[in-house]
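hey can u check if this looks right to u? its 174 residues, i copy pasted from the old doc so theres a chance i mangled smth
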Amino acid sequence: MDIVAHGVWVGLGAAWMHRHRRLDRRTATLAIGMAVVPDLVQLLPLGYLALLTSNGWSVLQAYANALPGYEPAMSPTITALTHHLHCVMHSALVAGVVTAGCWLWLRRLWIPLLGWWSHILIDVFTHSADFYPSPVFYPVTYWGFDGIAWNTPWFMVVNYLAMLAVATVMFRHK
């Protein structure tokens, strides 16, 4: 799923949760941030490239808007970094270790981590094997479920219409 949609879905989830359990603005904002962080971290090497090279910005834009099989050519180092950062940030095993560490430290679930978990869960089903499948069990395996590519035009339209419908229902009944 695209970065914006991850944030919107978690924002809607936070609004729903707030109706049933007091959720302060800071926690909701952190959860939304955690929902978009996995994709932003993956883009860090390209952001670095965009700042230091003459064609870096166009490579970053091409990468962010690429369809399966049409990713821009990048150096082996940048390709490897973006790939491994994607794997780390989309791994339930990595998120599980972080969640367990936070649980041990805080003695409770840190609610903003639900944003990261939602990102992983959504991406498992909205990434195809051809275009950054989510490696749920990385670093044990690179296996990822072959879902629908999130940037398929009809899927993006359905996804944003679903967000609009959920928001309309939620805020109409407020």
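Residues 3-172 form one domain.
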